[in-house]
Automatic annotation (TrEMBL):
<dbReference type="GO" id="GO:0008270">
    <property type="term" value="F:zinc ion binding"/>
</dbReference>
<keyword id="KW-0520">NAD</keyword>
<keyword id="KW-0560">Oxidoreductase</keyword>
<feature type="domain" description="Alcohol dehydrogenase-like N-terminal">
    <location>
        <begin position="4"/>
        <end position="83"/>
    </location>
</feature>
<feature type="domain" description="Alcohol dehydrogenase-like C-terminal">
    <location>
        <begin position="129"/>
        <end position="255"/>
    </location>
</feature>
<keyword id="KW-0479">Metal-binding</keyword>
<dbReference type="InterPro" id="IPR013154">
    <property type="entry name" value="ADH-like_N"/>
</dbReference>
<dbReference type="Pfam" id="PF00107">
    <property type="entry name" value="ADH_zinc_N"/>
</dbReference>
<dbReference type="InterPro" id="IPR013149">
    <property type="entry name" value="ADH-like_C"/>
</dbReference>
<dbReference type="GO" id="GO:0016491">
    <property type="term" value="F:oxidoreductase activity"/>
</dbReference>
<protein>
    <recommendedName>
        <fullName>Alcohol dehydrogenase-like C-terminal domain-containing protein</fullName>
    </recommendedName>
</protein>
<comment type="similarity">
    <text>Belongs to the zinc-containing alcohol dehydrogenase family.</text>
</comment>
<dbReference type="InterPro" id="IPR011032">
    <property type="entry name" value="GroES-like_sf"/>
</dbReference>
<dbReference type="InterPro" id="IPR002328">
    <property type="entry name" value="ADH_Zn_CS"/>
</dbReference>
<keyword id="KW-0862">Zinc</keyword>
<dbReference type="InterPro" id="IPR036291">
    <property type="entry name" value="NAD(P)-bd_dom_sf"/>
</dbReference>
<dbReference type="Pfam" id="PF08240">
    <property type="entry name" value="ADH_N"/>
</dbReference>
Length: 320
């Protein structure tokens, strides 16, 4: 986050098209679409390019999506069409498709980052919305066992409800808990916490999860790090920005000795949309299980506060 308030928050949305520009060729008024968390630049990439995200409040970038309307440039490339109409839509299915815009795609991609193969065991550090959907994705893709690490019991209960094994790091060292069940370690570990990682005393310790993942991952295994870790200067919109150190302590010796691999970074949801859309449309996936509340826009400030206290898992904002 950054910039100067106020700005519109959020970078996940689903809805229908109310108007189109003259250059839009593949979409029409009334079409239902998911707005990806980032905008296409409309050009062919000859090499990887960074994404431009909605709703981060940074100068000269995109506004957010927690609003009745949003203007999406380069719509043909940026929007994800979904098979809904005014007659067939309902709140539940809209919530399923909404997760394509970021968190389901990100959770799914985290496994690719780790090199996942069917039959692998997986440890997911963090059981917020992305972590829960990473665990859900692992189970959908044929993981042998999935461990979900967190300290908020309601989130661990939700992880258990989909078949993951809950690990509360306040009770005992999560590495010890997992290794007691997987003596040789898990083949894949996924980080879904990022720069706000906490230790067992619930104090910020940004490098604790990478140390735990290296310790718990099997020889030759892989680590996917998709928890946001982005240091930046203080700004009116992010007065504690500089409290995030740009560097962490990395257990390089153990990492090298175990021949591990690591991939980190953001995800382009459009890359994963076809397979995830098919899973939802066919009824094989219901990612909206993460939802803990549906609210109107006027209720959002209080729910931001309750989410920050760990009282919510995923809050959906519904416009009538």
């Amino acid at each position: 986050m950054g910039g100067t308030p106020p700005w519109t928050m959020g970078h996940e949305a689903v809805g229908y098209i109310s108007d189109v520009g003259s250059a839009v060729s593949s979409l029409a008024v009334g079409d239902y679409v998911v707005i990806s968390d980032s905008q296409s630049h409309g050009e062919l990439d000859l090499k990887p390019e960074p994404q431009t995200y909605f709703g981060f409040g940074l100068p000269d970038v995109l506004d957010g999506l927690q609003a009745e309307y949003a203007r999406v440039q380069l719509a043909d490339q940026s929007l994800i069409p979904i098979p809904l109409t005014h007659e067939t839509t309902n709140t539940a299915i809209e919530q399923d498709y909404l997760t394509l815009s970021d968190i389901f795609a990100t959770g799914w991609a985290s496994l690719d980052f780790a090199g996942f193969q069917p039959g692998d065991s997986v440890a997911v550090f963090g059981s917020g919305p992305v972590g829960l959907l990473a665990a859900y994705s692992a189970l959908l893709r044929g993981a042998s066992r999935v461990y979900a690490v967190d300290h908020i019991q309601s989130r661990l209960d939700r992880a258990a409800s989909i078949g993951a094994i809950p690990i509360n790091f306040r009770d005992q060292d999560p590495v010890a808990q997992i290794l007691a069940l997987e003596p040789d370690g898990v083949m894949r570990s996924v980080e879904c916490v990022g720069m706000e990682a906490l230790n067992s005393h619930l104090k910020k310790e940004s490098d604790i999860t990478i140390k735990q993942m290296v310790a718990v991952t099997h020889y030759g295994g892989g680590i996917g790090y998709i928890g946001v870790f982005k240091a930046h200067v203080d700004s009116p919109g992010a007065p504690l920005g500089s409290s995030i150190a740009p560097d962490i302590t990395f257990p390089m010796s153990d990492f090298w000795e175990k021949s591990l691999s690591l991939r980190a970074g953001g995800v382009d949801p459009r890359e994963y949309a076809p397979i995830l859309l098919d899973l939802i449309e066919s009824g094989k996936a219901h990612p909206s299980f993460i939802g803990s509340a549906v609210v109107e826009i006027d209720d959002v400030p209080s729910y931001y506060a309750s989410f920050n206290r760990g009282e919510e898992v995923k809050v959906f904002i519904h416009f009538p």
